[in-house]
Structure formats: C-alpha cells, structure tokens
Amino acid sequence: MSYDVAAVRSRFPALRAGIAHFDGPGGSQVPDAVAGAVAAAMTSPLANRGTVTSGERAADAIVLGARAATADLLGADPRGIVFGRSMTALTFDLARTLAATWSPGDEIVVTRLDHDANIRPWVTAAQAAGVTVRWLDFDPATTELDDVTPLLSDRTRLVAVTGASNLVGTRPDLPAIAAAVHAAGALFMVDGVHLTAHAPIDLAATGADFYACSPYKFLGPHCGVLAADPALLETLRPAKLAPSSDAVPERFELGTLPYELLAGTTAAVEFLAALDPSATGDRRARLQASMAAVEEHERPLRERIETHLAALPGVTVRSRAARRTPTLLVTLDDRDAADAYRHLAERRIAAPASSFYALECSRRLGLGDTGSLRIGLACYTDDADVDRLLDGLSDFVGA
Q1: Does residue 215 have a cis peptide bond before it, meaning omega lies within 30 degrees of 0?
Q2: pLDDT (tens digit, 9 = 90+) per residue, 207-239?
Q3: Between helices 54-74 and 283-310, what is the axis angle to 10°?
Q4: Which of 4, 29, 146, 262 has the highest CB neighbour count under 10 A?
C-alpha cells in the first residue's frame, strides 16, 4: 500500500479554506478533477443521446462511461446501472415498481438501523399495497443488528438493510443476511450510501439484489445510483413516459440524465482508483486496492479519536459494532450536542449534530429526533485534522 494523504489533500480546493472536515457522512468534499469534468461537460457541445451529431455522441459517451465507471466501483454489470436524481428518489421509484407485484398478506422487512431513505419508501409502498411491515431491531448497547431469520416467511417479498449505518457506522453481515433472505425466496435491497466511501465493494459478494449509493458521498456530484442484475431489471415494469426507451436500464431513468453530473461521477471513480498509486491492473483492480488503502488510512485515525474520547469526562461513544466505518456517534452528559457542534464550528471544525435522517436509529438509542454529535472521517482526513478535533472537544468538556 502507498497512501499519501498530503498528496490526496492537495487535490481538494475546498480544503484550502482551512476547515477540518468530519462531516463526510453528510457529503464529501470534491477533488479538482471532478469539478473540472463537470465544467468540461457543461461547456462542450451536448444534446440528447444519439449517434448523429457531435453533441449527441458526446452525451452518449458520458452516460456509457459513467455506467462503466460505477460498475467497476461496485463490481456490477454496466447494463444494470441506473442513474437518478438521488438514492432516495431511486428507492421510492423502485419501491413503487416492486409494490405493484405485491399482494395483501405479503410482508417486507426494514430495520431500525437504517437511514430513512431505506425505510420510508418501503413502508409507504407497503401501506399502499396492504403489505405487512416487519421491523428488524438492533442492540442499543452494541449497535449490532439482530438476526433477520425469525422475521422471514414464505410471504416475505423484500428485506431492506443498510450496508453501513450513517449514524453509528455499524456494518451488518450482508452475505449472511442475503443467504437467509434468498432462502426465504425474497429480494434483498442494500443501502450502500455510507459504505461505498469507506470500503471495497463487490456486489456479488454482498448478495444484494439491489444496491443503491450516492456519488456525492464518494467525492462526486449530487446524483444517485442503483445497481442490479440487468436480468432482474428486465422483469420489472416501472411507470414511464410512452416515448421513452423501454430498454434496461433506460426504462428506469425518468427524463434526460444530468450529463455533467455523470461526467463528474466518472471522474470521482477515476480519482478513487488512483488513491493508491502503487495499485496496478485494470480500473476495477485499482479501485479494490485503493479502497482497501482508504480503510487502512482511516482505521488508525478512528482508533486514535476513540482512545482520546474514552478519557474525556462525560463523553460516551455510541458506535460499538465490531465491524464499522470510521463514524463515531458521541453523546455528552448534561451537555447539548448542538452546543458542541457550534463550539467546534467556531474553531473551523465541521462535526455536526443531528439524527441525520436515521430517525429510527436515533430514537432506538434514546436520543430522540435531534440525535447527537457525529464524527465522520474521510479519505482526506489527516492527523492535523484529528489534533484540532481532539483539542476542540477537550476544550468543550473542560478536560
């Protein structure tokens, strides 16, 4: 592994503002290559996709390039990559499409660990179809997800689980869950938004039938991605405009795609593939090596923060799962997390306080809808950032 965080940081114009960013789970900063790709697409001739004019060919190349790049990132088939406005929008669309195949008496499973984007679309669709919703809980003491098996039956149609909690970082055992879900004859949906930025992803290894993520969480622009086996997508009939293509994956993409954002997505994937300059092979191989390097870079930083927080009076780290992303949820005895958020912000440290749309998780932890302080690392976090964070938190608690 050859990971040079100083070289990585030099490519992020936003970091020149001097802010220590621990807000990556809410959206990453953007490297220069991504911004340049977006600008280049927007200032070049573009048209609706086609093969006749140069603008048509440019648009088509951008779309196909983004499908190929995202497929390499996720270990997926480019023909099964669907783009949309956001992961949330794509999940709502998918939920409505699948719900059309459900009947009263059928069941779905959602978890209390998930971001609401992998809960509410399914709950809403189930209610409209007269389908029973079953809830998979987690242990607040360990933040480990419970066993899904007792909730499954021959009426289970879908199970939706996070790849990693955006609030506490817990990484459920996706292959084990997938095996149980598939044994029951159900489909498995994974929200990979938070996981994709921190670990190598292999769609087949996760066992997911559907895997959704957001490029703006892994250094790209704001849009959404849904990955699936194209053969599975062929069996689904989403609502769409009559003149629009009925081909897969285009039948799931409503309206003209944002070509400039897809160009930025490809640039983000290319940037990730180069994070470990010693990595060799094709883009997929370099991505796997580089994302493994990101994990190795982030882990000791997270452990250093945890060690320091354990020594601070009145500070409790709620993120305790054995496998997790570098994401720490922190509560402070008799102190408002929002005050800590403001205290750090005054010192140009971004570590926000909220439930971060993980309402069910926050409530299960007894934190209500306001949540607590979340510290999230990214590939560009360095020791100097961690020094500033720890000094700021020590000052806040008076240690």
Answers
A1: no
A2: 999 999 999 999 999 999 999 999 999 999 999
A3: 50
A4: 262
